[in-house]
Design goal:
about 425 residues, single chain, hpI Integrase, Chain A, 15 helices, alpha+beta, three-stranded antiparallel β-sheet, two-stranded antiparallel ribbon
């Protein structure tokens, strides 16, 4: 299978000598400590993709963006090797073209629950981006029948709450995001019901590792994205301060200036229920974590969640663990989780928060402001989807308040029976 790793790239620049001559000298400003690169099973690098990754960095993309793109290309590389395809071969018959075969494989992965539609969609998008680069730089034939161009209409809500439409160029290879029922609140996802949310927490505590259970709990009760969850540190947990207004709620600082990552580098405070914070502190000093910590001699020792090798978890690993959890849940008859993805914990938290705020009498603008702050949304358009979803949801008051008090509030739950 293809391997994704990072290399350290040394930068050089011309330096003028005293005698007027020039020489190449190391320039630390031009170097890269972590450049994602893909290597085939035989050990050879996929040179074209690796150069593309470097180009992304040179064009200003941050590390997480480039890593995400390269993970998508790694999935494609694995598909190529498994099926003995040449990425540059495009016969006239559509059925034999590699990109269409890969798209078909991704669609099958959505149906069997291996990938969420968002993962498949972003993977196909990254592969198309690479092929555009390859075509622009004459790495493949300019006449290769890659795809058919299409006009795509994207409907969205602007910052003022008005419905808008934008036309953009697309291809017939693009994979649309799917919501299971109705309209999703974020990334095409729907929140879990109060009953399903509690069932998920119970199942994860009894049938999964304590690490996955706590990560799901953080997502469910704080709305944190997975990238934030896996970079939480012991220092962040121990530095939590009491909320100045709400009892039994604590604030954990995340974003720039901390080691905890956030999307778009937004600064803010995670609002963490007291019971969850106590569970996290207990885990921080648990024998299980300390044994894992003993295997880690790197700068990431303060990371809260470490895998069995003593290294921080990656987003891909969490996706894999959630996929395994889904299969176990289905085997035990919990078919409501057959399409569950980690990000649904965030959708659930945001919907519950919006419902509570509206039901206690806050105006829409006040509710939007508070939900936006809690969810770390870059703009109001994302937050407004939650407000509109709540407006349309039936029995919103009763269900949302019960969920918030019974689940998000962590009032009467005993999470001592955690996984192995």
């Amino acid at each position: 299978m293809a391997r994704l790793t990072t290399i350290e790239l040394t930068g050089y620049a011309l330096r003028e000598l005293k005698d007027g001559g020039l020489e190449w000298a190391i320039n630390l400003d031009k170097g890269l400590r972590h450049l994602p690169q893909i290597f085939w099973e035989n050990g050879r690098g996929w040179d074209e993709v690796n150069v593309w990754a470097l180009r992304q960095v040179e064009d200003g993309a941050d590390y997480e963006t480039v890593k995400s793109l390269m993970k998508a290309l790694q999935r494609y590389a694995n598909f190529l090797e498994l099926n003995d395809y040449d990425w540059r071969h495009f016969p006239q018959r559509k059925e034999d073209q590699v990109l269409r075969a890969f798209r078909k494989s991704l669609m099958s992965s959505i149906e069997d629950g291996t990938y969420a539609s968002s993962t498949a969609s972003s993977t196909m998008y990254a592969v198309i981006r690479f092929y555009n680069f390859a075509k622009d730089n004459n790495l493949i034939s300019p006449n290769a029948p890659l795809w058919s161009a299409e006009k795509k209409i994207r409907h969205f809500i602007d910052a003022r709450g008005f419905a808008r439409a934008m036309v953009r160029d697309g291809t017939d290879l693009a994979i649309p995001l799917r919501a299971r029922i109705g309209n999703g609140v974020e990334d095409g996802l729907l929140p879990l019901s109060a009953k399903d949310a509690k069932e998920l927490m119970k199942f994860s505590s009894q049938k999964n590792t304590i690490e996955l259970h706590l990560m799901l709990a953080i997502g469910m009760f704080t709305g944190a994205r997975v990238g934030t969850v896996i970079t939480l540190t012991g220092q962040a947990i121990q530095g939590a301060v009491e909320h100045p207004v709400i009892s039994d709620l604590y604030l954990i600082r995340v974003g720039p200036g901390t080691a905890v990552r956030t999307k778009f580098n937004v600064s803010g405070d995670l609002e963490v229920p007291k019971q969850l914070l106590l569970d996290l502190k207990k885990y921080l000093f648990s024998t299980r974590r300390l044994l894992r910590l003993a295997k880690n001699a790197s700068a990431s020792r303060d990371t809260l969640f470490l895998n069995r090798y003593g290294r921080p978890y990656s987003v891909a690993t969490i996706d894999s663990l959630v996929s395994q959890m889904r299969k176990r849940a289905i085997n035990e008859g919990l078919t409501e989780f057959k399409n569950f993805v980690f990000h649904e914990t965030r959708a659930t938290f945001g919907t519950a928060r919006a419902s509570v705020l509206l039901n206690i009498g806050l105006s829409r603008s006040e509710a939007v402001d508070q939900v936006r702050t809690a969810m770390f949304h870059k703009d109001e358009s994302s937050t407004l989807r939650y407000i509109k979803f709540v407006d349309k949801a039936s029995q919103k008051s009763d269900a949302a308040n019960r969920f918030y008090e019974e689940t998000v509030g962590l009032r009467n739950e005993d999470w001592n029976a955690l996984g192995k």
